[in-house]
Amino acid sequence: MKNKDIRILLVDDEPDILEILSYNLSSEGYDVITAKNGIEGVAKAKKKQPHLIILDVMMPEMDGIEACEIIRNTAGLENTIITFLTARSEDYSQVAGFDAGADDYISKPIKPKVLISKIKALLRRLKEEAVEVEDIVTVGNIVINREEYKIINNGEELTLPRKEFELLALLTSKPNKVFKREVILDKVWGNEVVVGGRTIDVHIRKLREKIGDDYFKTVKGVGYKFIL
Fold first, then answer.
1. Are 216 and 175 in contact (CB under 8 A)?
2. In angstroms, what is the C-alpha Rg of the chain?
3. Does residue 153 sit in helix, strand or coil?
4. 1 burial class (0-12, 13-18, 19+ CB within 10 angstroms)?
5. What H or E segment, with its residue span, contains residue 171?
6. Are 95 and 222 in contact (CB under 8 A)?
7. 8-state DSSP, 4
8. Whole-angstrom Cα distance, residue 122 to residue 18?
9. What does the pLDDT read at residue 131?
10. Judging by beta carbons within 10 Å of its beta carbon (0-12, 13-18, 19+), is residue 41 exposed, middle or buried?
11. Is 109 helix (H, G, I), strand (E, B) or coil?
């Protein structure tokens, strides 16, 4: 999918922010739509069906959290990529955003080039989600053989315990996406009894030791994501 075919909806009550972001994203060739509050943002999301939505949290009339919840429950927008762009960095605000259905969280102020890089990383999911899961997947320098439960990291073959392998496979299925702890427990452990509330943390620590610490990021109070 070419940039000109990708629609991005910007929702922010600050005209300067809308102008700067719209200019930089349009310069990359994206089809950019803007809205100045949550109500207008929801209406344009339903009408334009954007591939990516960038939402401010604190806005008049309807804040970003409420707008995100409505969008997530709208037919045809369930899988739209949503990220919050806000000056608020409190943990509870991030948790509320992820609980509302956001995929990521970007804090202001942010340099345009850094924002563009983050947006490109988010948009890679469009391509990833369109491709059926294969037995052998390459993510960066890591090759994951789902059929044989084997990992090749920088040319070195690793054999991981089953749960570590399944956790890695889940996180790498959508690089840069934050997986909430409850989702990880459901996808990796399912109905199995989990001994202790730190089970995920222990497995992540082991993966960091074997794969590399820089690949895994903790989102405090929410979960984990695999970074490329």
1. no
2. 19
3. strand
4. exposed
5. helix 162-173
6. yes
7. G
8. 19
9. 45
10. buried
11. coil
Of residues 169, 167, 140, the one with CA closest to residue 155 = 140
d(CA 30, CA 24): 9
Instruction: Give the type of residue at 211.
Output: I
Contacts of 107 (CB under 8 A, 6+ apart): 85, 86, 87, 88, 89
Task: Encode pLDDT of 7-52 as tens digits.
Answer: 999 999 999 999 999 999 999 999 999 999 999 999 999 999 999 9
pLDDT in tens, 117-148: 888 888 877 665 544 445 778 888 899 988 77
**CB-side exposure of 181: number of CA atoms within 13 Å?**
16
Amino acid occupying residue 117: S
What whole-number distance in Å separates Cα of residue 152 and Cα of residue 150? 7
